[in-house]
Amino acid sequence: MVAKSKLLGSVEAGGTKFVCAVADSNFNIVDQIKFKTSNPHDTLLQTINFFQKFEVSAIGVGSFGPIGIKEGYDDYGFITKTPKVGWSDFDFIGTLKTAINVPIFFTTDVNSSVYGEYQFGTVKKDQTLVYFTLGTGVGVGVIQSGLFVGGRSHPEMGHIILRKHPDDTNFAGVCRFHGDCLEGLASGPSLEARTGVRGENISDDDPVWDIIAYYIAQAAWSATLSFRPDKIIFGVSVSSRPGLLYKARQQFEQMSNDYLPLPSLDDYIVRPTIENNGSATYGNFALALFALQKAENINL
């Protein structure tokens, strides 16, 4: 049994920013810090300096990817061939553990998010959830009966190939690996590449949102066919645009064409229930606790 006084750490390692937090074993946040994601050395130094102020017992890390998440494999703990310049083949967990030698649960940032919604959101524990992050990149996490879906590594549905919107055929996409995959067409950088304006500064009535909704609907339809989930959650900056999911549901309904029985789309394609993009942070706390309990049972 984990002592109540023990502290848990969370690292939400995003492509744009890191969010580091510490909580007690009841998941009450003690302290939190956010800073820009720069090069690996400087970013991990800030991360380590933050946690060294506390006696954390375990840390949950959710990182942008692709990453190596299978213990026993050569790439475990590494960020692998990521689109994030300068971070490919970086030993994330090895660097962190050298400075802070505690149990660490390492997974993707979107796996952390879906786990946070599973543990703390308004869902039933036997449900299958799919969580998409639409931000600097696009990621997906899937949880079924409390377990992450994945084999050799985590899903990479952010790079599925889509049917182009009729008004978007001349846009090449921004993914440096695949061009016009889901990430290349629906991430935050894709908005600026099309319009010359950052997404947060684009007006709500700009037709580019109809294009993004079309791609969100395709992502949701692919997830529906692949996993038959109870709920599909879209989180992070792009999907928070007012009215965007409403447009996506309309597009999704046309794509579905009554092929499968589905719940109300208002309850099926949704935003996160945990406020302020906190799903990953709370998911990391729960995963840190899991790692700590596993380590303590092994050492009994």
Question: Could you explain how this protein is built, in words?
Answer:
Keywords: ATP-binding, Carbohydrate metabolism, Kinase, Magnesium, Metal-binding, Nucleotide-binding, Transferase, Zinc. Belongs to the ROK (NagC/XylR) family. It is an enzyme of class 2 (transferase). This is Fructokinase. With 300 residues, the chain is an alpha/beta fold. It has two domains: 127 residues, Nucleotidyltransferase, domain 5 (2-Layer Sandwich), CATH 3.30.420.40; 148 residues, 2-Layer Sandwich (Nucleotidyltransferase, domain 5). 34% of the residues lie in helices and 21% in strands. α1 runs parallel beside α2, α3 crosses α9 and α6 crosses α7. The longest helix has 20 residues. The chain is globular and about 55 Å long. The N and C termini lie close together (11 Å).
How would you summarize the topology of this molecule?
Blueprint: E1 7-13, E2 17-24, E3 29-36, H1 40-51, E4 56-63, E5 78-79, E6 90-91, H2 92-99, E7 104-108, H3 109-120, E8 128-134, E9 138-144, E10 147-148, H4 182-186, H5 188-195, H6 208-227, E11 231-235, H7 244-256, H8 265-268, E12 269-270, H9 279-298
Parallel strand pairs: 1-4, 4-7, 8-11, 11-12
Antiparallel strand pairs: 1-2, 2-3, 5-6, 8-9, 9-10
Helix pairs in contact: 1-2, 3-9, 6-7
